């Protein structure tokens, strides 16, 4: 059995020879729907064995095993013709009535494209994909790791990098928010499903019965705006043992008026990395109350989170520095957050966590709905020893969060941690961009501290100037006497 890693590498090498899959974005989208069909087919084979009356939602001739499994099967122009004119159009037009899976497949393929132009190369790719058995737990686990690497590759595929949150960040957020069996959870900007799969694994550690596992299948919700990450998310969830990931919708979360979210849709837990640095299209802000209207995506998501959390619900999310120090609408959003929720912790991440996609500094915010904030604890996450930044080859690692984990339930101020009472935050007009007071050598500092320093410096300059004048005068006098 060839190594799964080598198989994926050789698939990408074959694709590079095809004129249609000329860039990472095209190759990844092509791989996205092909892996989806193969993983789905392997899953169906398993279901046919364990369920007496299992019936596939796919017509027989569209199933991967019917047209793709035979190594000597359909190839060249005939293969291209089948994929372009039969397979993809039929999948895009699937109707299944109440069948959740049929609807899911249609949603996954509504924007799918076949970029490959060479049917012989496509057959070679298909034959390589057939080398992976997604029912073998070793293969599936191995592919899960490979898939993580594929998603990372998105970071270099132009603007597709926004889909990927470093695994260490998702894991730390999920651990600290700590979803429990019996709770509902959501990621309203779920990308490729990093937070959802991490939360599912977290819940699986608590599961003891078949009923627990069944609960996990249905306890989560996700929404993703873009087609490619949505398909990748479906595939990711199937890899993590979710039979029908129909709880993940292909939709723009923010396009729905805030008032339309019903009490029944509220959840116990939200873990997310909403897109930041982006602007929503015209009219989206009209879905929000007038005092919170902005076109900045991250800010709108923060308003949404406050709305759809149940009382006592918990959230952990990634937000850029801009939200922390911004004014105007941002001030009103932060005031609402601190009034309606207990924003108990902000972990300040160093530069470069999201390199190479963006150098924007980010923060991890943790809050609970239903009690106002009385104080905010800050924790400044340092670089590991010897590092000055992160990059694709050296990303942030979960081990680096050990100090935060140890501090979390037994909080004391230290070199990295400090707390700020709500009165101070209110007095500062809800500016949350507060620097570590234990590090006087960093940053410009505050005005009260800077003014005396500046005045002292001016006095020193004046003294030096007087001394220089005296020296010059002395030298000139001495010269003229000579």
Q: Describe it for me?
A:
The chain is an alpha/beta fold. It has three domains: 4-135, Ferritin (Up-down Bundle); 154-427, 3-Layer(aba) Sandwich (Rossmann fold); 447-482. 46% of the residues lie in helices and 12% in strands. It has 17 helices and nine strands. It has helices at 4-16, 24-50, 64-67, 76-92, 100-109, 119-129, 137-153, 167-177, 194-204, 210-218, 227-239, 297-308, 321-325, 329-340, 402-408, 422-427, 447-481; strands at 185-187, 220-224, 248-250, 267-272, 309-320, 341-348, 362-369, 375-380, 417-421. The protein has a nine-stranded mixed sheet. α12 packs parallel to α14. The longest helix has 35 residues, at 447-481. The radius of gyration is 28 Å and the shape is globular. It starts with a helix and ends with a helix. The model is unreliable at 157-161 (pLDDT under 50).
Write the layout of secondary structure elements.
Blueprint: H1 4-16, H2 24-50, H3 64-67, H4 76-92, H5 100-109, H6 119-129, H7 137-153, H8 167-177, E1 185-187, H9 194-204, H10 210-218, E2 220-224, H11 227-239, E3 248-250, E4 267-272, H12 297-308, E5 309-320, H13 321-325, H14 329-340, E6 341-348, E7 362-369, E8 375-380, H15 402-408, E9 417-421, H16 422-427, H17 447-481
Report a brief summary of the structure.
The chain has 482 residues and is α/β, with parallel strands linked by helices. It has helices spanning 4-16, 24-50, 64-67, 76-92, 100-109, 119-129, 137-153, 167-177, 194-204, 210-218, 227-239, 297-308, 321-325, 329-340, 402-408, 422-427, 447-481; strands at residues 185-187, 220-224, 248-250, 267-272, 309-320, 341-348, 362-369, 375-380, 417-421. The chain has 17 helices and nine strands.
């Amino acid at each position: 059995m060839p190594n799964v890693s080598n198989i994926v590498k050789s698939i990408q090498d074959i694709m590079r020879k095809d004129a249609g899959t000329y860039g990472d974005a095209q190759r990844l989208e092509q791989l996205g729907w092909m892996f989806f069909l193969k993983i789905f087919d392997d899953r169906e084979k398993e279901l046919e064995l364990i369920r007496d009356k299992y019936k596939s939602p796919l017509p027989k001739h569209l199933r991967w095993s019917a047209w793709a499994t035979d190594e000597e099967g359909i190839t060249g122009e005939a293969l291209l013709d089948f994929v372009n004119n039969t397979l993809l159009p039929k999948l895009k037009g699937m109707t299944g009535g109440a069948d959740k899976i049929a609807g899911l497949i249609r949603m996954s393929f509504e924007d799918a494209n076949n970029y490959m132009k060479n049917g012989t190369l496509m057959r070679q790719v298909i034959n390589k994909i057939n080398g992976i058995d997604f029912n073998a737990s070793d293969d599936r686990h191995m592919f899960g790791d490979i898939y993580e690497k594929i998603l990372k590759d998105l970071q270099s595929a132009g603007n597709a990098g926004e889909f990927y949150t470093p695994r260490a960040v998702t894991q730390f957020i999920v651990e600290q928010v700590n979803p429990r069996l019996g709770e509902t959870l959501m990621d309203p900007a779920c990308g490729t499903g990093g937070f959802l799969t991490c939360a599912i694994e977290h819940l699986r550690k608590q599961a003891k019965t078949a009923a627990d596992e069944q609960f996990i299948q249905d306890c989560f919700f996700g929404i993703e705006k873009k087609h490619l990450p949505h398909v990748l998310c479906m595939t990711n969830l199937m890899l993590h043992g979710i039979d029908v990931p129909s709880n993940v919708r292909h939709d723009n979360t923010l396009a729905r008026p805030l008032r339309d979210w019903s009490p029944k849709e509220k959840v116990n837990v939200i873990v997310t990395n909403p897109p930041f640095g982006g602007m929503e299209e015209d009219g989206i802000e009209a879905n929000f109350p007038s005092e919170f209207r902005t076109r900045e995506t991250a800010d709108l998501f923060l308003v949404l989170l406050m709305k759809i959390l149940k009382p006592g619900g918990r959230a952990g999310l990634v937000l850029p520095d801009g939200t922390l120090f911004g004014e105007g609408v941002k001030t009103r959003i932060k005031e609402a957050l601190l009034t309606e929720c207990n924003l108990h912790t902000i972990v300040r991440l160093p530069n470069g966590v999201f390199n190479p996609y963006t150098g924007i500094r980010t923060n991890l915010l943790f809050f609970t709905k239903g009690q106002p904030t009385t104080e905010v604890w800050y924790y400044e996450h340092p670089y590991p020893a010897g590092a000055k930044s992160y990059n694709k080859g050296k990303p942030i690692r979960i081990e680096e969060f050990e100090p935060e984990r140890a501090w979390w339930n037994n909080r004391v101020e230290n070199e990295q941690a400090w707390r700020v009472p709500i009165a101070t935050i209110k007095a500062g007009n809800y500016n949350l961009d507060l620097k570590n007071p234990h590090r006087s050598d960093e940053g410009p500092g505050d005005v009260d501290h800077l003014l005396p320093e500046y005045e002292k410096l001016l006095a020193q300059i004046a003294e030096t100037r007087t001394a220089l004048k005296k020296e010059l005068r002395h030298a000139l006098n001495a010269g003229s006497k000579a």
